[in-house]
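Fold this sequence, please.
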Amino acid sequence: MSADRVCVGAIAGAFGVRGAVRLKSFCAEPEAIAGYGPLWTEDGARSFTVTLDRPVAWGLAARLSGVETREAADALRGLRLYADRAALPATDEDEYYHADLIGLSVQDTGGAPLGRVAAVLNHGAGDILEIRRAGAEPLLLPFTRAVVPTVDLAAGRIVADPPEASE
């Protein structure tokens, strides 16, 4: 995926019988997803204009341009949708798009390498960085100022102060 686009949502499947989809928005304000212009597939081969209908359990009922049947909507299940970065709002200081963090190198406060950010997870209690380490299990770090005091996008690195492992 191009750095010029950011993943803003995913299709969870069909909603109803007339081609609507259940859309999971990854935006801070879920309804904002419809205002980011056409949304693209990861490969950039297709784009959709999104029209929101209403909030539903685990997402939003939405219509996508060119999707007219339940079968067509259901065929899109699992598809991630990307917005042009230029259409997204600028981030505040100490605020980052997940896409900007993935791939950054991570080192501890002493400068020792810990690995690279493979994913940013959120299961409801805050963001967690998944750090891939050579020859070791992934390291999961809470994305808090106490554990991650420095994010330097220009240098492509994060400085982390991981909590001590308990036995």
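The chain has two domains: 5-87, 98-160. The mean pLDDT is 92.
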